Amino acid sequence: MKHSYAVLAIAAAVAALFQAGCATSYKLGTTLAPDLRDVYVPTVVNESDQPDAARVLQRALVREIQREGTLRMVPEREAATRLEVVVTQYEQSATTYSSHDTQHPSEYRMTLTARVAFTRIPRRQAGEGPEAAKPIWVKSSVSGSETFQGGSGAVAAKLSCLPEAAKDLAETIVDGCVGAW
Fold first, then answer.
1. Distance between CA 7 and CA 146 in Å, rounded?
2. How far apart are CA 151 and CA 106, in angstroms?
3. DSSP SS3 for 147
4. Who wins on pLDDT, 145 or 103?
5. In angstroms, how far is CA 120 from the centroid of its own chain?
């Protein structure tokens, strides 16, 4: 009985030391400076051939920013940062074919690609001219994707897949913004 208490005491001491070491070495959450967390997100621009891509991505970005919790969307005049997103490509490609029908795909992948610029909004001081925005995280190509099944319900599956691909892209964008440091 005494032996099991000694083992428990040693295990507790080792766990406490390990926890203390991890607490000083690792930090949960973002390293984005607190003064850069107020973000203005202008309307997403659509340069792709998918008419709803920008609208669906805009909605997904708002939801992801709210869900993730590091950034806070504010009007432009109150913002410290600006997140500009341009949907540059919508692509749908076959990923899987049935072994008995190689002419018609059984699964497709939908991919949305965007150009992203997360920048610091310069504060204008009295008597100074305009200052250029300072890049924090800029990517010429960021993608999000989702798969859907082909077949008779392919049109409905494709329509329901666009929000999921946009959600995946929004998660990638927000992760890039808050993890850019």
1. 50
2. 7
3. strand
4. 145
5. 18
Instruction: State the Cα–Cα distance between residues 84 and 179, nearest whole angstrom.
Output: 17
Write out 105-143 in H/E/C secondary structure.
Answer: EEEEEEEEEEEEEEEECCCCCCCCCCCCCEEEEEEEEEE
98 three-state secondary structure: strand
DSSP 8-state secondary structure symbol assigned to residue 70: S
CATH of domain 32-178: 3.30.160.150
Strand-pair partners of 134: 120
> How far apart, in whole angstroms, are the C-alpha atoms of residue 47 and residue 15?
54
Contact, 117 vs 129, CB < 8 A? Answer: no
148-155 long-range Cβ contacts below 8 angstroms, 24+ apart: 148/107, 148/108, 148/110, 149/106, 149/107, 149/108, 150/94, 150/104, 150/105, 150/106, 150/107, 150/108, 151/106, 154/108
pLDDT tens readout for residues 166-181: 999 999 999 999 986 5
Other Cβ atoms closer than 10 A to 34: 9
Distance of alpha carbon 53 from alpha carbon 55, whole angstroms: 6
The helix (H) or strand (E) run that includes residue 46 is: strand 45-46
pLDDT band at 21 (very low <50, low <70, confident <90, very high): very low
